[in-house]
Specification:
alpha/beta, Rossmann fold, 2 domains, 8-stranded parallel beta sheet, helicase
Amino acid sequence: MNQKQKKKKKTTKDSFDQLGLNDKILKNLSQAGYEKPSPIQAELIPIAVTGKDCIGQARTGTGKTAAFSLPILQQIDLRRPGIQALILAPTRELSEQVAAEIRKLCPSKSLSLAVLVGGKPVRPQENQLKKGAQIAVGTPGRVIDHINRGNLKLSTLRFAVLDEADRMLDIGFRPDIEKILRKCPKERQTLLLSATLPPPVERLAQRYMNEPVMIDLSENKVSVDAIDQYYVTVDPDRKIKLLSRLLFQERPKQTIVFTRTKRGADKLDRIFSKKLKNVAAIHGDLPQSKRDRVLKKFREGKIRLLIATDVMGRGIDVSGISHIINFDIPEFSDDYVHRIGRVGRLSSDQKGAAFTFVSPDEGDQLTNIENRINHMIQEFRVDDFEAYRPKQPRKKIEKISHVGSTEHLINPDFGDF
């Protein structure tokens, strides 16, 4: 984009007191256990506190919420009621997660915050707005609903944030986002955060941002240093058995298994729940109350194996995830970036691992991923297991002795991985 000013990728700022934050926020950060800013925080905060529009490109899980929240909390007027900041996110889970983080980061108890998301009654959200909420966090669809009902008035708005902008566009929120931004005052600060910056996101920024400063920490390597990445060549009919053996061999602390479809997630959940107690699936067709329970248990460590679709995976921010397993190779290489962004958040002396199952006819998709991350993914073999059997000419037709059930695909000695 011609309007963007490129920033250096490397920062020398290693303390929050170097970022232009006031003493109240710094004291609260210290009490909350924030010791050192992440790269995106170190680069974006000093610019955002000056009121400039910013685009922050960095992988998921690098501290983007604090990067955009702290400048807003420093500039917002907590003595004045009415919406001053609107933060849009792709999912209810991520919206609630952002809201919780803002409450933790705010040094004042007088902050009033409304969470505007689907799957929850409208009336309590309406009451939050009527009481003078100063910050609203929500999904585009429900935000539009409140605007249409007259509950959400944007005349006092000073800050607009698009969090996970690429994912919001992926799942069809572009018309709602544009409608919302057109209703916002032109004199505002806009912050856009995204793991990737595809053309639709760039066009959105060009249209609705004012000479934004670009902070690019994506580094095409996509956290190669933080995550060991592998692929496993596998016959489609041996993927379930491979997953079983891989879990038994790796014994992950906590893992997410990604599938392309809701049906695929449910199938794996049914199969593995018969052998393990700490398994759950999450996708958009589940009732909201069940999704909440699953995420709560996962964050508490009570669920070690979570089976998720891409959209739901973006709402998961858990520090203990040690492994990501792509049961289905992602259709788009950017989705691979999003998926493995869930891992690699352990202590500095530990590395996360990402495994991708690749069928013999999916080699081109693997190559596209390697080109996207500028890194050759290593091949991995599970001990004493043949995941891929090259097709051999058959001399005769053999009878199939077992048809239908998939239970036989699971190792009966799988145990507590």
